[in-house]
Amino acid sequence: MELDEITRKLSDLDKWREFFTCQGLESSKAAKQKDQANQKSDDVCEGERRAPQSTGSKKHAIPGTLTVPASLGGQPISIEMALHLRMILCGSTFQVFNYEWRKAYFKFHDPYSDLSYALEAEKGGARGVQMSVQAYIIKYLLLIRNSDENWSMASLHGINQKEQERSLSVALTDILWTAGEGQKVTVCLITPECYFTATSEYKADNFTERLLLFEIYGKEAVQTFIHDHIHCFKSEGSHGVILFLYSLIFTRTFEKLRKDLDFTTSHLLQCSLGNFICKQALINMMLTGRSSPNVFNGDQKFDSETEALKSRHGVLTRSDVGYLHWNREKMEHGSLPQVGSMLKTPKLPIWLCNINGTYSVLFSTNRLLLSDWKVEHLFDLYYYNGQKSQNKTIHLTIDTHSHYWEGRHHGDETDIEKRFPSLEMTIRTKWRGAAINWNGTVPFF
What we know:
Blueprint: H1 2-50, E1 75-76, H2 79-90, H3 99-103, E2 107-108, E3 119-120, H4 127-144, H5 161-179, E4 184-190, E5 211-217, H6 219-228, H7 231-234, H8 240-252, H9 254-260, E6 269-272, E7 275-278, H10 280-288, E8 300-302, E9 310-312, E10 322-326, H11 328-332, H12 341-344, E11 350-355, E12 358-363, E13 378-384, E14 394-399, H13 404-408, H14 413-419, H15 422-428, E15 435-437
Parallel strand pairs: 10-11
Antiparallel strand pairs: 1-5, 2-3, 4-5, 6-7, 8-9, 11-12, 12-13, 13-14, 14-15
Helix pairs in contact: 4-5, 5-6, 5-8, 5-10
C-alpha cells in the first residue's frame, strides 16, 4: 500500500512538472515575441529619426512644380555650407524649422481688392520676414511704380496678379541687393536632387539638402531671375519665406555676418515657446543690409566690470524703410529699447513696427512728411498688420500740435500707458504727445 501511494504521488508530481514546463515555454515564447516586436518598433522609430524629412509628413513635401532642375546651373549646397547656415540661424546644427515656418510663403490678398497690395501673414516667427517684405512692396507700389505721380492710397487698390508678382520680385531684390552691398546676390532655389544626407552633426529637413545657389551680378539681372522663379516664393508649399531667408544669408555671406554681429548676439533666430522668432539683427539686415543687433545709432563701447571693453553694433545709416518699437511689458519694466533717429526717420515715410512682439507696417502717402517739418503738424498714416481679422487698411490722422495728450490726461506715466492702445503708443515714440484720430475705426490694442 505504501508503494502504491508513493507511485501515485510521483505520477501527480510528473503531471504538475509537465504543466509548469509548458507554461514556462509559453511565457518564454510570448516574451520573446514581445521583445522582437519592441525591437521592430525601436527600429522603425530609429528609421524615422534618421529619415531626411524630420516630420515624416507629406504635408511638408515640396511639390515638384516648385522645384528647379539641377541642370539649370548654380552651385549645389554642401554639408559645410548647411552647417554654417544652421549655426548662424539657430546656434545649433540640430535645430530645424517647425511647421509654421515651413508652410510660410508670400501670399497676397485677392487681386483687385482694397488689400490687393498686402501680404497675408499668420501668427508665428515668419511674420517678421513677411512684414519686412511688405514694407518694401509698399515702397515699390507707391514710389517706384508711380515716380511721376503723387502718392495715394488709390494706387494700392485694385492691383492684379501680374502686378503683385512684380512688386514681390522688386521687394525681394531690393532687400537682397542692399544686403549684398550692390555687388552680387545669391538666390537659393530647391531641386529634386539631394546633395548630402544627415550625419551625426547635422539633422536633415528634406529641403536644405536640396538647395541650389545662384550667384547673380547686376540688380536688373537679379530682379529678372527672381521674377522668372517667383512661384518658388509665392506658392503654397514652396517654403518661400525660408528660401528668401536663406538667400539673404548667403548674399550677406557668413564672413560679413560675423562682423555685423557683436558679443551680445551670435545667431539670427531665437527659440521662444517652441517657435523661432526674428532677432533684431535679422530685422536690421532686412531694413539696412547690415545685421547689427541693436537699434541705437552707430556703435557703442560697452565697459563690463568682468570683461574688457567691447563694442555693441547699432545702425550706421538711414535706410529707405524705418523701424518703430513698442512693448507694453518692457515699458513697464523699464527695458524698452530706444530706437535711434537712423531708424525712426528713414528716407521714406514707411515703418516696420514691432508692437508687443507682433510685426506690422505703418506708412504715409505724403512724400514730404519726413522732409518738411510743417507737414508734421497734421497728417495721415495708414496701418496694416497682416492678420486675417483686418479687412481694410486702417486710416489714422495724426495731430502733433493740438496738445490733446498733455491737456486732458494727467497722472503718472504708468496710468497713461494703460489707457491708450499700443499702436498709439508706438506712433508717439516718433511723434511725442500726438493726438490720434482713428477716423471711425474702433481703436484696438
